[in-house]
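Hi team,

As requested, here is the filled-out complex form for the adenosine-5'-triphosphate run. I kept the field names the same as last time so the parser does not choke. Let me know if anything looks off before we queue the next batch.

— J.
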Amino acid sequence: MKTSPSIPSQFHGPGASIEVTDVSKTFQRRGEHLRVLDRISLEAAAGEFVSIIGPSGCGKSTLFNILAGLESADGGKVKVNDAVATGASEHFAYKPQKDLLFPWRRVLDNATLGLEVQGMKKKEARQLVEPLIEKFGLTGFEHCYPYELSGGMRQRVALLRTVVQGRQIVLLDEPFGALDYLTRTELQLWLSSMWEQFRWTVVLVTHDVPEALLLSDRVYVLGNRPANVCCVLDVDLPRPRGLECIGTPRFAELEEVLLNNLRDPDKAHRFTSIGSAQSIVDGDVDG
Ligand SMILES: Nc1ncnc2c1ncn2[C@@H]1O[C@H](COP(=O)(O)OP(=O)(O)OP(=O)(O)O)[C@@H](O)[C@H]1O
Ligand SMILES: [Mg+2]
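And here is what came back:
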């Protein structure tokens, strides 16, 4: 895919590096403490794509809410480009778990919303968004309302609204979770090619192991609540990746590592960057 000269420069990466160290969170609910995050640590270099997978309810969205400044952490540190980030929302473009399109706003107006919230005039915001409509597969639908779109198109509008903000780090919380298999696969490949082209720093939450492997440089597996990182897997599959990589033996090896860690996080190997996936499967790497 060639870069069109009309694509705004703020849209291009590489993004910033992020380092999350020992972030913890406990909610107070009806007089009870619910410890959700237990010293989570992870990192992404500028322009890297990392994924987080973990059981439902373990705290993945809570972590994103903390990074986006919507919740506060009880402890730990977040650094962006090596500087401590406090109330870090200016660094992050966040696509929450639901697409959150406003039903009364047309595609273009939904896509410009994040920029408008940042204080940009609508006309200026449209000038940034319009050149990207084609790349996001929305040509001809600019003036449609969300109810007139397919699920995949709604997700693309929400992604467009997220990345056009030109923030340094893109947080995507299960962007394709609600889609059928074919649409999901198509969007995974599309996101992969967009990332290859623009090199934002991306942190993706997903329940879909093949999706994490297809897209990521590294995958963090979280255990049950209170969540901690129970495995770190470097994904050494060659890029660019297409569907053909899903059928390779290496893909199957890495998939097995992730599934084993998800099934039994207590036996997982902590902080193990993988030279050989097989050694993890066999359990002969120090935990
Ligand atoms: N604002 C809140 N107040 C109290 N409890 C909360 C709050 N937000 C989340 N929780 C609780 O924290 C836990 C983790 O929630 P979270 O949404 O982060 O999970 P998740 O890993 O994203 O799950 P899923 O994969 O199902 O999206 C849940 O038990 C949830 O009920
Ligand atoms: Mg969630």
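Two things worth flagging: Residues 104 and 222 are 38 Å apart (CA to CA). Residues 27, 29, 34, 36, 56-62, 97 surround adenosine-5'-triphosphate (ligand 1) (CB under 6 Å).

Thanks,
J.
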